[in-house]
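Input (Diguanylate cyclase (GGDEF) domain protein):
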Amino acid sequence: RQRHGTDPCSFFHPEMAKQMQLEYELNTMFEDSIKKRDFQIYLQPKVRLADLTLSGAEALVRWIHPDKGMICPSDFIPLFEENGKICRLDLYVYETVCAYLHKRIEQQKDLFPISVNLSRAHFKDLNFLRKFSELKAKYGIPDGMIEFELTEYSFLDKQQREMVKNCIKQMHRLGFHCALDDFGVGYSALALLKDFDVDTIKLDRQFFVDMTNPKAQTIISGFIEISEKLGIHLVAEGIETKEQMELLKQFHCEMVQGYYFSKPLTIDEFEKWKDTMQKQ
Ligand code: C2E
Ligand code: CA
Ligand code: CA
Ligand code: CA
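Output:
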């Protein structure tokens, strides 16, 4: 007789066993994939609404596995956040971004700021920024070209708060910028702006899903106004339609990121996108 999910004794539900098997495989493959450079960065443009110029890009990791094909972050980031491998992966993504910017400098091409996601797991080790700043120097990356995106989770842990505050100070001293990612999904979003000195907030996609709703509009324009008054940059995330874009223009939203302009692209695709955009 088959046991199902509602049965408290079914520890090894087939789905769960499959999941454990997958996690086991991903963990085993990790080091090898780092060595073989099977992790690649995709870039998604951020666009200034006032003049539709490129304001920067976000680096998003993809795992291009020789047998399994492309594996998306949602399938491995949570797992690697749990077992700490995420710190190694974030550093890898960061170094890849540094190497890319370095190459552009050598080729005398223009630079644009790139943001890199940082898991909250980094804040367990006080010294993590040292490695980041050493690499910044090694690759000759100018100040202001790299921004770290932190989610609210990094700020929630009471014991970590002071440390995160100091980290942001140190990031600024070292020439990095700092963004608060997925802004507005948690409960303390506004309080965080008071206590943490971030340069940018990235307003979460969920606010724009139902943008015809007048209440949603009031909330969005409110956030935009607050960010302006605080002198913090704002990016609207997950913008997919012309309607969303037009409304955000009316609200004087500074920057947008989303499928409407472009999905995350390989570096080659991104450079082509950037060139056609600049010709327009
Ligand atoms: P995120 O940092 O909030 O990144 C934005 C996610 O939204 C990306 O998903 C992006 O592809 C997706 N997106 C962008 N525009 C649109 C849109 O218009 N509509 C919709 N529906 N989605 C859009 P992705 O690349 O699958 O990444 C998911 C999450 O995985 C990221 O969310 C981030 O939290 C995490 N992640 C990705 N790369 C890294 C990394 O290198 N390090 C760490 N720690 N986390 C990463
Ligand atoms: Ca992000
Ligand atoms: Ca986000
Ligand atoms: Ca997210």
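Residues 181-182, 202, 237 surround calcium ion (ligand 3) (CB under 6 Å).
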